[in-house]
Design brief:
about 160 residues, mainly beta, Immunoglobulin-like, 6-stranded antiparallel sheet
Length: about 160
């Protein structure tokens, strides 16, 4: 019986909960920002959400899709922190600042078990291509564990 309990303890200890996967961003040299980041457990992408005109309120959408038997972690406090930009003024409502978009500020929406959306609101200062960049913090879970992830995202969006 003691051997069985010890074996169960080793099995539980081997299940790493809340650790980033191999595709997660780590503290090290800065990786170039990409519009889409994929991993065996998730795909996350930033893209335009409709058309955008100079001086108008515009939106980008960050879409998270859980893959490989994983699902969106409903309990995680999702957050997108936009990088400073000379091209856009961010319109976030989070108490942390206008460049912060969070679940608690109403910027996040679950779209089923495997999909979630984060809305990033901004106002473009000029027509042409504008950079919308930032760090998205999120979590996906399987039956065995939950992974806390971070992705550096960036896209050039068209402004009319």
């Amino acid at each position: 019986m003691t051997l069985l309990a010890a074996t169960a303890l080793v099995a539980v200890a081997g299940c790493k909960k809340d650790e980033p996967s191999a595709g997660a961003t780590s503290a090290g040299p800065a990786k170039p920002k990409s519009a889409k980041v994929t991993d065996p457990h998730y795909s996350v992408e930033i893209m335009p959400n409709g058309t955008c005109a100079v001086g108008a309120d515009c939106e980008a959408r960050v879409e998270l899709v859980a893959l490989g038997g994983y699902h969106v972690n409903k309990e995680y406090p999702y957050k997108f922190t936009a990088a400073p930009s000379k091209d856009v003024e961010y319109l976030g409502k989070d108490p942390a600042g206008t460049s912060v978009f969070t679940k608690s500020a109403g910027d996040y929406a679950a779209a089923g078990e495997e999909r979630a959306l984060m809305t990033v609101r901004f106002r473009a200062k000029a027509a042409g291509k504008v950079d919308v960049e930032g760090t998205y913090k999120f979590s996906v879970c399987s039956e065995q564990n939950c992974q806390i992830e971070s992705a550096e995202l960036g896209a050039k969006l068209d402004v009319k």
